[in-house]
Recover the amino acids of this structure.
């Protein structure tokens, strides 16, 4: 970020103060938007391929030539040109801004993500907290969408989403406390640095793998992915909160889903599985792009697992989903916090201890 | 109902909530056609349900009174369109009874094979769509892979893939080619392996069991009282199968097979899981029947000679009436015919299994969650083409 500001402050631009800052932000936001769009298109194509191969099909094969790589691109163009429908009885203002609100939450989270040393827009001290916090904004947008659509199915979807996200934020946050407890920081960069020095956090003590699993399950619920896709629940609620949406507005919900899959997978990779570090190979001296590639590879692995689960598991019922969050995940997450605290206090663990 | 009473007793004094009317269908992904269910909802819980049918009414029975006996056979295909052969069989048997003819032996065995293949295909759809109702999309594609093989097999003698018009009064429409029986046997071997896969992906899945066990419990007495038949009745523990108890085709009396019934494996007897599991095991029993039948297909005529001649002129059965019922994949399908000696019956009525099985829906839904409602509709495995006729 600072490098960008300096770049705009220096000739040939020679922008001063706030101007340089704005220019730098504009570049950052533009590139992030581009990244999310391209990533989402790739992920959607990947999802279709994963689903197809699990279901003894090929999936898209024609568009663009090689294995239908341009299918998402074609779909995006189609969505752009679709008629912008707003139901006559809908609350137009809320209906109009809901997709934007939904997308904003997860988009803001991207700002704090470190892709490699120095490849980060804002190095937030409270990075983990910030991402979790802004991601929760999404639920507001979903409720707006569900309510404004003036459709009972949408309303059901929105209410389910509210219940689900509120319930699963708790075990997710508690599970995140576990690595935070070990590292002693909320800065995402610190997690990478710590793991570079001491090894992957997930191997630190017996409680951390459990915490990783809990966070992963809870983030599945946060992303509305199967088996927690109740807010959309195609066979029950037609399409849930976005039943009435079409065209570009619908695609924003889609974009949001894939973007939040990315964020949650990246958090799992960064907080538990070493971030941009590799076991056995020291990549700390390697240039930043290597770190980016390593981190993205890990992230895509977890995205793949999410897809894998989606095309394997049936959907839970509402009460079972709530029971899962409150009766199983939360107690286990609390146990992990207590256990890790004890292990840290007495200096036990499977990995060599930190200097302190 | 108990759950509902408990629920309302708990909540009544505490929070006031507004009742919500929800239209499930006729355009809804999991009503399996154009069924419309009017639900009264208290939050996620259904307090009352009323099913509304008739969106696919095509006057099938009235058509039967206006076309000739032989012309009506393809119309029966379009009632329960997933089990066309079985419908044709019930109709053909009723017409044969009226005429006093019997299909030759070869035709009898071919009918058994065709109907059992069709039963597997029909249960495969039930299995696949039930997966989708539960939010698992993949089993559907596995089921369609095997169904495709069955359709390709039945296409060879029948000429069409879904609405076969193969079983006709007097026998079957065409003879089989010499490779057909070995191919059917090869399919049986393949299918048994695939069947194990289905259980791995869906039947033994913990979430699936949690979603279906103890949901939509249909007690034995209620199932009998409401006239349920087929897997819905057997799922409630009643061992009643026309193939075994009233062998309408004599080959059924000569082959060995079991009649699977629900046992309450994962919960209460007669829940959605039991109905589902009865269907799954029936597929394997059908494979057993097909194997034995393939070994016993004799050579000879595939169509009664007199009937083959009669196909060129309108058939005019003597005065009288006939009722024949068959065990369809969904239950008992019966045709009642009254002849006055004319070229078409003066009365033609069908007793459809889906129609009777659907009647329990209104009684099962109250007290369930909306997701359970979808599970119950799926487990009844209705075909609206036959409900509405």
């Amino acid at each position: 970020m600072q490098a960008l500001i300096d770049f705009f402050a220096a000739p040939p631009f020679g922008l001063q103060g706030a101007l340089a800052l704005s220019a730098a932000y504009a570049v950052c936001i533009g590139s992030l938007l581009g990244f999310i769009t391209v990533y989402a298109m790739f992920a959607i194509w990947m999802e279709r391929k994963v689903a197809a191969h699990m279901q003894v099909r090929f999936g898209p094969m024609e568009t663009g030539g090689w294995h239908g790589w341009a299918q998402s691109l074609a779909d995006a163009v189609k969505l752009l040109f679709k008629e912008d429908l707003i139901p006559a009885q809908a609350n137009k203002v809320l209906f109009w801004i809901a997709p934007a609100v939904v997308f904003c939450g997860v988009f803001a989270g991207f700002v704090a993500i470190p892709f490699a040393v120095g490849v980060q827009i804002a190095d937030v001290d409270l990075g983990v907290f910030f991402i979790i916090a802004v991601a929760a904004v999404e639920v507001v947008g979903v409720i707006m969408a569900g309510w404004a659509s003036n459709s009972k199915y949408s309303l059901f979807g929105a209410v389910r989403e509210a219940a689900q996200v509120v319930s699963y934020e708790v075990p997710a946050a508690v599970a995140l406390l576990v690595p935070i407890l070990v590292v002693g920081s909320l800065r995402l960069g610190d997690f990478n640095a710590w793991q570079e020095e001491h090894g992957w956090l997930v191997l630190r003590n017996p409680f951390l793998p459990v915490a990783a699993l809990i966070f992963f399950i809870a983030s599945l619920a946060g992303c509305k992915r199967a088996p927690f896709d109740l807010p959309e629940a195609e066979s029950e609620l037609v399409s849930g909160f976005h039943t009435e949406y079409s065209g570009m507005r619908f695609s924003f919900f889609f974009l949001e889903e894939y973007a939040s899959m990315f964020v949650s997978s990246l958090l799992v990779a960064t907080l538990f599985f070493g971030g941009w570090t590799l076991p056995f190979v020291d990549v700390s001296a390697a240039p930043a792009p290597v770190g980016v590639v390593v981190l993205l590879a890990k992230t895509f692995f977890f995205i793949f697992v999410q897809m894998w689960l989606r095309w394997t598991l049936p959907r839970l019922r509402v009460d079972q989903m709530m029971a899962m969050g409150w009766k199983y995940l939360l107690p286990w997450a609390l146990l992990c916090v207590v256990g890790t605290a004890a292990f840290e206090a007495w200096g036990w663990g499977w990995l060599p201890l930190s200097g302190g | 109902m108990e759950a509902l009473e408990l629920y309302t007793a708990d909540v009544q004094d505490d929070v006031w909530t507004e009742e919500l009317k929800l239209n499930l269908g006729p355009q809804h992904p999991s009503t399996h056609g154009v069924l419309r269910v009017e639900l009264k909802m208290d939050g996620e819980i259904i307090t009352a349900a009323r099913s509304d049918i008739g969106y696919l009414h095509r006057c099938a029975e009235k058509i039967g009174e206006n076309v000739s006996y032989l012309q009506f056979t393809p119309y029966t295909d379009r009632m329960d369109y997933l089990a066309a052969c079985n419908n044709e069989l019930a109709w053909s048997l009723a017409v044969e009874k009226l005429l006093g003819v019997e299909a030759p032996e070869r035709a009898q065995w071919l009918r058994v094979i065709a109907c059992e293949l069709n039963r597997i295909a029909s249960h495969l759809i039930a299995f696949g769509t039930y997966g989708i109702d539960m939010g698992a999309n993949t089993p559907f594609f596995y089921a369609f892979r095997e169904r495709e093989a069955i359709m390709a097999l039945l296409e060879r003698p029948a000429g069409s893939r879904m609405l076969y018009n193969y079983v006709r009064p007097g026998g079957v429409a065409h003879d089989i080619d010499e490779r057909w029986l070995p191919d059917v046997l090869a399919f049986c071997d393949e299918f048994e392996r695939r069947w194990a896969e289905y259980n791995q992906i869906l039947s033994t899945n913990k979430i699936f069991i949690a979603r279906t066990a103890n949901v939509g419990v249909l007690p034995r007495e209620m199932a009998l009282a409401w006239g349920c038949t087929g897997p819905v009745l057997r799922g409630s523990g009643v061992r009643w199968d026309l193939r075994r108890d009233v062998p309408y085709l004599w080959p059924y009396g000569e082959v060995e097979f079991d009649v699977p019934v629900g046992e309450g494996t994962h919960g209460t007897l007669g829940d959605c899981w039991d109905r589902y599991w009865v269907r799954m095991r029936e597929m394997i029993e059908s494979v057993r029947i097909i194997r034995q039948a393939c070994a016993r297909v004799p050579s000879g005529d595939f169509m009664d000679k007199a009937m083959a001649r009669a196909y060129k002129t309108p058939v005019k059965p003597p005065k009288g009436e006939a009722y024949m019922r068959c065990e369809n994949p969904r239950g008992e399908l019966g045709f009642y015919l009254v002849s006055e000696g004319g070229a078409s019956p003066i009365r033609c009525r069908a007793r459809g299994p889906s129609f009777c099985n659907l009647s329990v829906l209104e009684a099962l839904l109250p007290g369930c969650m909306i997701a359970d409602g979808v599970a119950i509709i799926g487990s009844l495995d209705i075909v609206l083409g036959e409900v509405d006729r």
